[in-house]
Each structure stands twice: as C-alpha cells, then as structure tokens.
Amino acid sequence: MPIAVIGGTGFYKLLENTVPLQLRNEYGSVELMRGNYQGREVIFLPRHGKNHEFLAHEINYRANMKALQELGITRILATCAVGSLNPEIQAGDLVLIDQFVDFTSNRPKSFNKYSVDMSEPYCPQLRSCFLQAAKELDIDVRDRGTYICGNGPRYETRAEIKLFQQWGMDVIGMTNATEAVMARELGFCYAVVTIATNMAPGITAAPPDLATHRRVVQENRARLTQLLLKTITLVPEERHCDCRASYERALAARASQLKAGEGA
User: Fold this and answer.
1) Using CA atoms, how far apart are residues 61 and 108, in angstroms rounded to an integer?
2) What is residue 109's predicted lDDT score, i.e. its pLDDT?
3) Is pLDDT at 262 greater than 90 in this prediction?
4) Cα 19 to the chain's mean position, in Å?
5) Is residue 262 left, alpha or beta, with left meaning phi > 0 and alpha meaning psi from -120 to 50?
6) d(CA 14, CA 139)
7) How far is residue 49's CA from residue 59's CA, in Å, rounded to a whole number?
8) Which of 133, 159, 189, 255 could make an S-S bridge to 230, C-beta 3.0–4.6 Å?
9) β partners of residue 201
10) What are the percentages of helix, strand and coil residues in the chain, rounded to 5?
11) pLDDT in tens, 162-206
C-alpha cells in the first residue's frame, strides 16, 4: 500500500525512480511525484505547488486530498514550517503537534458532506512512528504542541500573537488545520511534524523574514528528511487506530440523517 508525504518542494528528489504524476478531479488538477524508498511506494505532494507558486490561502486542498484518495493512499506523513509562540520552542526545533485551533476564513475548509470527529485530529499510530523514528535516529522532537492556523497571506500583529499565547498556542502556521480536517473527512491516517523557522512577532523584535525562513529550512532539511524516511519504514501495513472508523461513523450518521429526512 503506498504512503503519501506532503511537504515542501525538493523532497521527491531523494526518492528512488521518481516519475511525475498529474491528476485531475472534480476540484481541479494536482501535480505529484511517485517514487520508492526501500521497496515501498511513496507519493510526494508538494503542498504549495512544484514551484511554490501557491500561497497558503491559494492551495487547492480539496483537489490535493482527493487526488491522494484516488491513488489509494490511506496514510499521510506531513511536514510544515511554523512560527513559534512558545519561548521553549526555538528556530530549528521540531514539534509533533497533537492539537490545532482553526482561525482561517474565506477558503474551502471541508468537503461539506458529513461531520467528522476531530477531538484527536492526528493519527496516534503515525505519531508513534514519528517518535520511534526520532528515538532511533537520536533526533530531538517535541512530542506535543498546539498549532493555531492563521488565514494568511499576511503575518500576524503583535497583539494577535499575544492573544494566541494567552490561549496556550505553541506554534502558528497557515495550512495544517485545513489539511488535517480534509484528511479526516476522507478517512486518512494523518500526522505532521512541524519545524519552527522563527519566533513570532512580539516574542522577538525581528520581523518575519522569508530569507530567514528558507535558511532555517535548508539548514535542517537533512535532519527532517532522515526523520521522514525512517518513519516511512516504520509505518505498518495494518492500521490500528480510529481514523478510518471515525470516517465510517460520519458516513453512517449522515446516511441515517438523510433516511430520517426522507421519512419525515
């Protein structure tokens, strides 16, 4: 069974025998890469497009996730860059987030077909694989954190950052809540490791800087790649989590509602 990796551009170059894929579905077209790692088929999806052409609010999340479903994907490992709201999380630190707060608006955020349980938004089995890989590689990964998803494309004000800190948020980004919801809506197992590229405004006097963001990602690319590749080898064929069951319960509940409506 293939496994998907969603992240920044360039990762697919490390896979074996890569070939480009272009799929089209009811939501739009998607460019992906298909490759192998240690005999396992891997589909790489560049979240922001092959040339990083899409800002966070421009990403076609529905087309992306639907394309993975059509390829038979059931597990997704993801990475994303974040700003840190927690002084204990410094630039370059890796955080395996376990909760999020969605602060986005004016973007498609759901397939709008049924209501899924998001109380535990990330797959515990995949999270365990990430942590086991980190342990075997002796890579420091913070095992919990709460992510707040902003709308973008602008960065946050100091007042907003102060508010988010008071709420107990640890890191901030612009993509992951939307992606995680749609993954659950399609029954995927999904987990994400984040890399802090900067301290958010208000915590530091330095303003957000794209060059610094890129530098921190580049400096830590090898470490993050090692973690991802090792995690791929640790993902078992069988699923022992509630991700698929949550999806099936949502389908059954919606079918029951429609049936009840027909009888009314």
Assistant:
1) 8
2) 95
3) no
4) 23
5) alpha
6) 19
7) 8
8) 133
9) 204
10) 35, 25, 40
11) 999 999 999 999 999 999 999 999 999 999 999 999 988 777 777
Please state whether the predicted TM-score (pTM) of the whole model is above 0.70: yes
Domain 3-263, CATH among 3.90.226.10, 3.40.50.1580, 1.10.520.20, 3.40.50.11810: 3.40.50.1580
3-state class of 247 per DSSP? helix
Collapsing DSSP states into helix, strand and coil, what is residue 150?
coil
Residue 1 has pLDDT above 90, yes or no: no
Q: Is pLDDT at 10 greater than 60 in this prediction?
A: no
Tell me the β-bridge partners of 190: 76
Query: How far is the C-alpha of 200 from the C-alpha of 204, rounded, in Å?
Result: 7
H-type alpha helices, the chain: 61-70, 124-137, 158-166, 176-185, 210-234, 243-263
Partners of 199 in the β-ladder: 84
Q: Could you tell me if 55 and 152 are in contact, meaning their C-beta atoms sit under 8 angstroms apart?
A: yes
The neighbour count for residue 179, using CB atoms within 10 Å, is 24
Q: Where are the domains of the chain?
A: 3-263
Rounded Cα–Cα distance for residues 141 and 150 (Å): 23
**Two tokens, residue 67:** 């394309």
